[in-house]
Amino acid sequence: MKMIILVFAFLIGGMSQAQILDPVKWSTSVNKISETEYELIAIADIEKEWHLYSQRVPEDGPIPTSFVYAGNGNYLKKGNTLEGKGHVIQDPVFEMEIKYFENKAEFRQRIKLKGEVPFKIEAIVEFMVCDDSRCLPPTEKELVFDIN
Predict the structure, then answer these.
(1) What does the pLDDT read at residue 7?
(2) Fewer CB within 10 Å, N- or C-terminus of the chain?
(3) Residue 18 pLDDT
């Protein structure tokens, strides 16, 4: 009888655990533009049916994608982080026009070197994703760019 109760407890416990959703995988690369300029590239691989939102969304909309680059004295940011074309739709959930990305999104940030290479740039990306039936809470992921 104890064995049956134990097996039943494990089955109930296993079924009650929530599935952890992580529909966006981030990767980084660095493109050398010149001896003193580099481009930091962050790529989001987005699972089918999910949408990653732009850096610029209307007020009262979803949380926009944002990047924070840790300063370390070796570089200066040049301009803002640029993003790909994406899709602009009239979103029925948020009832507004919103730009989002599906499948893949690419973000680029130019930097100018102040110091010697090699070094690393650490960054945090905050983002929100939704599918047709739900949105996940905003998520932060650490990114690292190797400047060589």
Answers:
(1) 33
(2) N
(3) 56
CA dist 29 and 114 (Å) reads 20
pLDDT at 17 over 60: no
- Single-letter amino acid, residue 45: D
DSSP string of the chain?
-HHHHHHHHHHHHHHHSPPPP--EEEEEEEEE-SSSEEEEEEEEEE-TT-EEEPS---TTSSPPPEEEEPP-SSEEEEEEEEE---EEEEETTTTEEEEEE-SEEEEEEEEEE-SPSPEEEEEEEEE-EE-SS-BPPPEEEEEEEEE-
- Please state the pTM of the whole predicted model: 0.85
User: Closest Cα to residue 51, out of 102, 90, 9?
Assistant: 102
Confidence at residue 15, expressed as pLDDT on a 0 to 100 scale: 41
